[in-house]
C-alpha cells in the first residue's frame, strides 16, 4: 500500500493511502487526525474539518493544490509538509546548494583508502559520483574484522573495544555489556551544536569516513561499510552539527552524529524529505534496513566510526579546491583591472612595453605576481597535506590484521590539517586584500581617470560606492578570521586529551575566508567590466573580451543606480563555477604553448587592452 510521510509542526506522521485517486486535501486531513490523536490537548485543534492548511513538497518546496489527486502529484514514500493557517513553515526543508547534482549519478569512484584526492572528494560532495569498494579493500576489511572478533572472544583488553573511553580507558567492560558500550558511546558523543553541515558537506564527510574505513585498519564489519555506502549512494545523510570538535581525539562529536543517523536515530536528510526523523528516511534505502545497520554497529567497534580527522579534512578538501579555483581566476580579474586602469606591464616583462612613458604603477598592480604567486604556492602546499590526510588511517586503536595486533596511537590528532588550513586562510586572504585596493583605484577618479564610482550623473547615482564598502568590510572581517586557531589548545577528558588541534574551527573559518575572497573578487570583476564601458569603442584582448561577455551574460551595464546585491551574487556564482577560468583557459594554454618557455609560467597580465584599429598599441598611447 502506498504511504506518505507528512510533517506537521515538529512531528512526522506516516499516512497509508489505499486509493491514490484521493486528493491532497484528504491526505492533509488524514495527517491532521493522526496528529490530534498523539496530542493530549488535540494540538489546539478543535475540528479537523474546519482547520485551514496548505501542503507542500519537502523536495523543491512546491505548494500542492488541495484538489489535486495524489497519484498526479506525489510518488510512493514522498515527504510533504502541512502548515496550519497561522503557523510558519519549517525552515528544515532546504534545497540543495547550487552546483549539487539533484539526479542520482551513474558513474562510480572506487575507494581503496589510498588513492582518493581532494578533487574526487569535492565532486563526491556535489553528487557527481556514487562510490564502491575495490576487491582488495573488501579483503582487508574482512581480515581486520576477523581479528577484532577473535580479540572479543578471547576476552583480551583492547582500548575502545573491551574498555571504556578517554579517562575510562582502564575500565574493562564485561562481554555482556559490550553492545551497550557501543550504543552509549555513539549517543553520548553526539553532543555537537549549531547548524547542520549542508548535504554537500555531509556527503564529503561520509565519503571520506568510508575511504578511511576501507584501509582495513579499523575493525568494522564489511556489512557496516556496505550499509554506509548504500546510505551515501542514496544521499541519505545524517544531521551533523558544525560545532563541537576540538580536533583530537579526532572529530568525535561530528562523526558520532554521522553514525547516529546511520543507526536510525536523530535526524537525516534526503533529496525527497529534507531534514526528517532518521526512522522515516530509512525507507529510501533500497536493499537494507537501517535497523540491521544499528545492530551491526552496536555489535562492532563503534569507536571505529567516530575516531578520526574526517570533519577537518573533508571541509579542508572543499577549502583547498575553492581556493585553487579563486586563485587562478584572481589572475584573470587582476589582468582586466590592469587594462582598465591602463597600467604598465613593464614590471612583468621587460620587452612587453618598450614605448611606455609610465615608469611604474602602484603596488596593487605592479606586485600582483608576487602576492598572487605566494598564495598559489601555499594552496599547492596545503593541498598536498590534505591529500595525504585523506588517505591516512586516523583511527584509535589501529588494527593490523597481518601482524595480529592492535595499537593505540595518535593518528587521530588533527594538527597537520589544522596548521595547513590556518596557513591557507592567511594566504588566500591576500587575494582579497590586494583586490579591494584595486577596487578603490577603479572607483576613485583621481586614480582611474574614470567617472567617480564608475557611474554617470554622480550624485544622482552612487554607482559602486557601497559595493567598495562591502569589499572593505569583508577584507576587515577576514583579518580577524585569519588569526590561527591551531595556536590554541584546551585540555579535555580529565587531562587525558591534554593537547588538541582546534582543527574544526581552522577548517570552518578557512571556508568563510575563501567565500569572502570570492565575493571581493566578484565585486572587482563587476567594477572592471563597468570601467570598460567608459573606454569603448576601444577593445581589450580576445580572452579578456570573452570574460567581459561572460559577465554581461548575467549582469547588464550600470547605467543608473539599481539593486546591486543580485549582480554581486550572479558574478560570485560565475566564480564558484569557475566559468571565468573556463573562458580564458584556452587562450592561456595557447599563449603558453606558443610564446612562453616551459620554465616560465604565463603572467596574469599577458593580455593587453588594444585599439581596434591598431592591435599592437596600448590604449593610453592613442
Automatic annotation (TrEMBL):
<dbReference type="InterPro" id="IPR021922">
    <property type="entry name" value="Par3/HAL_N"/>
</dbReference>
<dbReference type="InterPro" id="IPR001106">
    <property type="entry name" value="Aromatic_Lyase"/>
</dbReference>
<dbReference type="GO" id="GO:0004397">
    <property type="term" value="F:histidine ammonia-lyase activity"/>
</dbReference>
<dbReference type="Pfam" id="PF00221">
    <property type="entry name" value="Lyase_aromatic"/>
</dbReference>
<protein>
    <recommendedName>
        <fullName>Histidine ammonia-lyase</fullName>
        <ecNumber>4.3.1.3</ecNumber>
    </recommendedName>
</protein>
<comment type="pathway">
    <text>Amino-acid degradation; L-histidine degradation into L-glutamate; N-formimidoyl-L-glutamate from L-histidine: step 1/3.</text>
</comment>
<dbReference type="InterPro" id="IPR022313">
    <property type="entry name" value="Phe/His_NH3-lyase_AS"/>
</dbReference>
<dbReference type="InterPro" id="IPR008948">
    <property type="entry name" value="L-Aspartase-like"/>
</dbReference>
<comment type="similarity">
    <text>Belongs to the PAL/histidase family.</text>
</comment>
<keyword id="KW-0456">Lyase</keyword>
<keyword id="KW-0369">Histidine metabolism</keyword>
<dbReference type="Pfam" id="PF12053">
    <property type="entry name" value="Par3_HAL_N_term"/>
</dbReference>
<dbReference type="GO" id="GO:0006547">
    <property type="term" value="P:L-histidine metabolic process"/>
</dbReference>
<dbReference type="InterPro" id="IPR024083">
    <property type="entry name" value="Fumarase/histidase_N"/>
</dbReference>
<feature type="region of interest" description="Disordered">
    <location>
        <begin position="599"/>
        <end position="622"/>
    </location>
</feature>
<keyword id="KW-0597">Phosphoprotein</keyword>
<feature type="domain" description="Par3/HAL N-terminal">
    <location>
        <begin position="5"/>
        <end position="79"/>
    </location>
</feature>
